[in-house]
Amino acid sequence: MKSATALFAFVILLCSPFIAAQQQTPEQAAYAIAMSALQDAGKLHIGMTRANVERLFHVEGGIQAASSVRYLYPKCSAIHLDVTYSVKLDAEGRDLSSPDDKILSVSRPYLDYDHVD
To answer: What's the whole-number mean pLDDT along residues 62-83?
Structure first.
């Protein structure tokens, strides 16, 4: 129970800029953000495109492969999502990123610190 309370406090702290703009208690606003992230992630399915994902989530900073991308939720950067894509390779065998790349898998949203290289 303590870890759940600490996790909830963590979300409230990292999402405080969005929470401050709302006319809700911090707990209500944090819950609304979490539910919004779950609903947006639930809209993503295998076979959809990279463009579909990037309308709802932002690519996290740092070096990433085109085939496996870590995203963050724009309303709270502590909420993340991992997506794997089917990508084309260039003549040298490197991944080429395209808005038309198809989703192969989508993780559930999870909490983590931002990763920046």
So the answer is: 93
